[in-house]
């Protein structure tokens, strides 16, 4: 949490507000810690002073250029202080400031504080004030491309907000394709894919294409939780909404199993697939066979492939037994 | 103002009389000491940097101490005075600290603290209700404060606050609040995100499941599907992560564990392994828990470490309520019964 640049800021070139002529009219307002005895906190002198002046400015409601500069300094010291961010917005409105400058300023602040709620919220309010989201895709792309940040929840939220509010869906699939090709296990990117297609519409052609796309990725990395979840999500969008809606997917998953793959996600998918069929086709001749497959797979999961969750798998098997023993009309 | 302000001068050093076989692995007294000393010395910098969430910090410390049966180490009166000073006279909401703006997050923390101290009569509860009611939006969602950020976290905070104040009935539009939360359920994995379409995330799942528990609407969940996704969060180390392919973390362990507990599916994961993971995140020197093994401890992860162990039935800890993350005896005292499912 420490900000190393803070040390530099304590250097000699920083002039305390108490020694600045243009601040002589302001009386700093120290933190009121209440009447209780207090072990005083070793705030840095600069930190203490900046916030003492900040409190004084907020208390007198001054909205000026110097007040704006002061918020910049205060937020540099603590970008999580949402009261200062709010006051900054009040000043920007009052001064009718050039908001493009504010966006530029925020580019840098977000680069340094990409996991801070307040900076993203401020960005959103400024974009709303400007009614222009021209830079938002680029900004979030930069944040997500930053090494190790491809799943940054704040950036994704902001991106979805901008896309939804300003109808920026057009090139999003291309962006998602790239992220998934860079890291096939990027759950955020798979989620974004669903978000985009849900808006554009899961037509039969889209469903077919998406199933193919997903299967191709599973072929490369079989044990990919995100891709399997996405596959199920897309199957549920088909008119019947069943896991066996696509013969290709059934063939694909059974083929993987036959070829010896025992990824827990593959097995979990097969269990759901057979279970769903077993419950829907009670009278079918192969019903007992389907149930038997579920029991065997659950047993394998519990004892070999997913031992840590063995209780879950024995629940699934037991649950199916109970369901099948009930009269079918209750389903 | 720091946490030591609330420590009673009469407190002695760490006593070891209660120490027996079962507490050997949990560094019980070190954690008590850690919480008492929160903000006293070396974390000064961090302490002043976290001023903006002070109210929640107090809630985390108070709750963890109460779960450990050590609540009397803090001075009830000065804590209540602090909380009272943070109620905004205009809006009725609570700020994290004097000089900051009120927010839903700190309003819930303040109400939780007051419930723990049985001191709701010290504040203007009707003003709190008005504050929360005023933040509900036409689509049923909630702003976090008057500046308009929407998030399922705030939906949970709103409903939890009103529940603790016994004012859920006849205040907000519960039906719409539930509807909004359900619109954040993802069809791919059965989880919930911060807004409709946002990625499933264990912390936000806790908020949404918690809201459904408080509003007695757990039947809306696809429990088996969500339960499976949640128990998939357990990694070979025993710890739980918040999203696929992320690192395990003590706080996510709490959120997943409490959600599974509410849904009656706690036993689907390996309790022993999770307990080992949580205990491995203790700082054996200073006390306190960190997010994962070997990192610096903080008060936030300390509550969730202790809370997780309580849910797992660790000895010498009071029972914690999974929905409200408060000691169960307080929830009982208030006569509140958040819904819990039992496995059919």
TrEMBL record, chain A:
Q: Which Gene3D superfamilies match?
A: Protein prenylyltransferase (1.25.40.120)
Name the cofactor(s) required for activity, per the record: Mg(2+)
Superkingdom of the organism of origin: Eukaryota
- Acidic residues bias (residue ranges): 1-10
Region called Disordered, residue ranges: 1-22
Give the EC number. Answer: 2.5.1.58, 2.5.1.59
GO CC terms on record?
CAAX-protein geranylgeranyltransferase complex; protein farnesyltransferase complex
UniProt KW keywords: Magnesium, Prenyltransferase, Repeat, Transferase
Among the GO molecular function terms of this UniProt record, one is: CAAX-protein geranylgeranyltransferase activity
PANTHER family recorded: PROTEIN FARNESYLTRANSFERASE ALPHA SUBUNIT/RAB GERANYLGERANYL TRANSFERASE ALPHA SUBUNIT, PROTEIN FARNESYLTRANSFERASE_GERANYLGERANYLTRANSFERASE TYPE-1 SUBUNIT ALPHA
Which family is this sequence assigned to? Belongs to the protein prenyltransferase subunit alpha family.
Spell out the protein name for this chain: Protein farnesyltransferase/geranylgeranyltransferase type-1 subunit alpha
Q: Which organism is it from?
A: Drosophila rubida
Its taxonomic placement starts with: Eukaryota, Metazoa, Ecdysozoa, Arthropoda, Hexapoda
From TrEMBL, chain B:
The protein's annotated catalytic reaction(s) are: geranylgeranyl diphosphate + L-cysteinyl-[protein] = S-geranylgeranyl-L-cysteinyl-[protein] + diphosphate
A Gene Ontology CC term for this entry? Rab-protein geranylgeranyltransferase complex
One Pfam family in the UniProt entry: Prenyltrans
Cofactor binding note from Swiss-Prot or TrEMBL: Binds 1 zinc ion per subunit.
Q: What is its EC number?
A: 2.5.1.60
Q: What one GO molecular function would you report for this record?
A: Rab geranylgeranyltransferase activity
Family note: Belongs to the protein prenyltransferase subunit beta family.
> What is this protein's name?
Geranylgeranyl transferase type-2 subunit beta
